[in-house]
């Protein structure tokens, strides 16, 4: 990001006491516009709420043309969001029988929320929770595994998600849904994390070339398989939506004729893991700020906390990125720590107690699990603060 923009953010938040989190609304809005511009005509963006975890900012994105619907992480979250949104799909199967029962006994919620299923067993969970006479039909979405498999399935490249991969398997599950009159087949989803969630311009050139080769092969294979699955399932019952992709694959996924919507949310905050994609460049929009509280030596400045590590395989790329001052690095013995983060480098000796260090989280919505509110900056001004899920007393996952 530009030095001028960072200076504006620092000036606008000078009166706040760290630690705190900041969202640059100018960047957030620009990223939202970029997501819709990347999508093929007629393809909408379904907001992945886990990547935002702030209702005010989710609503801000959803108010823009090109965004429609929410992809929630859990059923309890979906039920909460359904008070304000009429199209909420749960991205993962639920075994929360209390939440399933609450959905099925409320016709208004049942009309607004769609469950994810990937097996007859997941249908059985719903049936055990609600019986065969719910107040309203329960809508379900089939989850198609989108990974690339090679060597007869011995090599699996992509997320380990659904057991449903082939048209025949999808048809079998669709028939199982249709055999239960208290269920309604609503849509189909396939998330290609090996494309959408894997940077293709990170690391050594050999790794980049390998990632791009896998992504090209996977995109070709999935486009053919997804089209065949949609055709086969649609012959049994119409599908209201076909969902795919993510922030990293909007152009590619939305170009498939059978795809009606792409799920995205991380691209709004543009966390550090999205810095290394060739196809797009988002503007960093979300930050957190920690104060310097120790000077253990003339060459070291220690920030309070800061160990807000992202989920996924442990590694340096899961640590926050030090955004300002430039020229700082982590201590290899401590990294970003729970209680303290020693900072080394040419600029460390210039920092004094009370000075601020700006970080970016490696992932998007996980930042909001650490703070109760997000401070909003527009232009050069601090324009307010809005609660995160945590700030509203919610912790879904």
TrEMBL record:
InterPro entries: Ala_racemase_N (IPR001608), D-amino_acid_metab_enzyme (IPR051466), PLP-binding_barrel (IPR029066). It comes from the Bacteria. Gene3D superfamilies: Alanine racemase (3.20.20.10). Residues 23-269 form the Alanine racemase N-terminal domain. It holds the Pfam family Ala_racemase_N. One of its GO terms (biological process) is D-serine catabolic process. One of its GO terms (molecular function) is D-serine ammonia-lyase activity. This is D-serine deaminase, pyridoxal phosphate-dependent. It comes from Klenkia marina. The lineage of its organism: Bacteria, Bacillati, Actinomycetota, Actinomycetes, Geodermatophilales.
């Amino acid at each position: 990001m530009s030095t001028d923009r960072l200076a504006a953010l620092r000036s606008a938040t000078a009166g706040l006491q760290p630690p705190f989190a900041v969202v640059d609304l100018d960047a957030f809005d620009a990223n939202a516009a970029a997501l819709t511009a990347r999508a093929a005509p007629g393809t909408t963006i379904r907001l992945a709420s886990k990547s935002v975890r702030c209702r005010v900012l989710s609503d801000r994105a959803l108010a823009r043309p090109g965004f429609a619907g929410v992809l929630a992480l859990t059923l309890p979250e979906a039920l909460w969001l359904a008070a304000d949104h009429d199209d909420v799909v749960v991205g993962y199967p639920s075994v929360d029988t209390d939440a399933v029962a609450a959905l099925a006994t409320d016709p208004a919620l049942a009309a607004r929320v769609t469950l994810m299923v990937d097996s007859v067993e997941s249908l059985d969970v719903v049936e055990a929770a609600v019986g065969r006479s719910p107040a309203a039909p329960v809508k379900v979405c089939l989850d198609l595994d989108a990974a690339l498999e090679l060597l007869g399935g011995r090599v699996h490249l992509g997320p380990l998600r659904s057991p449903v991969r082939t048209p025949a398997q999808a048809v079998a599950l669709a028939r199982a849904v249709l055999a239960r009159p208290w269920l309604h087949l609503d849509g189909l989803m396939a998330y290609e994390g090996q494309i959408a969630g894997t940077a293709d311009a990170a690391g050594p050139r050999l790794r980049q070339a390998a990632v791009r080769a896998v992504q090209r092969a996977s995109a070709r294979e999935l486009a053919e398989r997804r089209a065949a699955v949609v055709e086969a399932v649609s012959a049994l019952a119409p599908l209201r939506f076909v969902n795919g992709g993510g922030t990293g694959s909007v152009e590619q996924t939305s170009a498939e004729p059978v795809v009606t919507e792409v799920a995205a949310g991380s691209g709004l905050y543009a966390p550090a893991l999205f810095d290394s994609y060739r196809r797009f460049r988002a503007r960093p929009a979300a930050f957190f700020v920690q104060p310097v509280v120790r000077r253990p030596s003339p060459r070291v400045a220690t920030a309070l906390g800061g160990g807000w590590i992202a989920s996924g395989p442990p590694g340096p790329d899961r640590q926050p990125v030090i955004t300002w001052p430039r020229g700082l690095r982590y201590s290899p013995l401590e990294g970003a720590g729970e209680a303290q983060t020693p900072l080394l480098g040419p600029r460390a000796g210039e920092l004094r107690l009370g000075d601020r260090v700006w970080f970016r989280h490696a992932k998007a919505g996980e930042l909001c699990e650490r703070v109760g509110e997000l401070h909003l900056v527009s232009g050069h001004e601090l324009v307010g603060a809005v609660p995160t899920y945590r700030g509203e007393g919610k912790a879904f996952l």
